Sequence to fold (301 residues):
Amino acid sequence: MEQTAHVRMDVKSLDEKFAHLAKNHPCLGRAPHKGRLHLPVSPACNIKCRFCTRAFNAIEERPGVTRRVLTVAEAPEAIDRALRLCPEISVVGVAGPGDSLATGHALACFRAMHEKYPDLLACLSTNGLLLPDHVEEILRAGVRTVTVTVNAVDPEIGARIVEKVSYKGKLYTGTEGAEILIDNQLRGIRLLAERDVLVKINTVLIPEINGGHIGAIAAATAERGAAIINIIPLIPQGDFLEMEPPTCAEINTAREAAEAVLPVFRHCQHCRADACGRLGGQDVSDQLFENLSAENTFSHG
Fold:
């Protein structure tokens, strides 16, 4: 597994190194007055997590859910409309409903956005499987903040969370698939951090599986240059439908373990893939997607 020297990122150094981003990115916890738009342009995914169930609806407040999938051509109009509805928007992100690097849609949207709205921050969310192959493309698209979902840095634990990994035309399962995913995640995080991209880690807390592993995840990603971590409580669904979600005490314990090496983002809203508005404020995605025709397509690999 890829190794590098340990580096600790504390809150002060986060604000100093990424001052502009910290002041304008609501998901860094320093800009609650700012808004964000998620463009649901990435329908395909290259891994299958056992807790993941993607859906089309306007009801559920969780990742992997969207009213519809936008085409790349529709994204500029969506940004225009979103800014009219919520002028406080400072960040445009792609957080699914699949993986943002499984297709070229997200990066194409960011390239177009960067030309028209150079002051908007671009934030890409990914499982990290393809990160090492796309670092240069990410930079050329104007992306300076990347969120990587890392749920394990031990392949034995990862294999209990990820059912399958589709990588370079082959399907991997078990610890073999988990090891490929983890190695690429950690290598990609390091490559991005070396290019001064702010990397946020999302970790789904699954007490029965990775509850005692959060400190190790935080340490491994901090060593590669991650700047902040967000502990997301499991929403029981999919293969994990019968599992209990973490208690408040378990969440606090996990956050304390992570906070030994990384600042912890504590205001996660379980945002949808088509969220639009301010965190904790009015979501205007209903108005944003009004009168847009439906195009619903999901795929794995």
The mean pLDDT is 85. Residues 152 and 284 are 34 Å apart (CA to CA). The two ends are 24 Å apart (CA to CA). The first helix runs from residue 11 to 17.
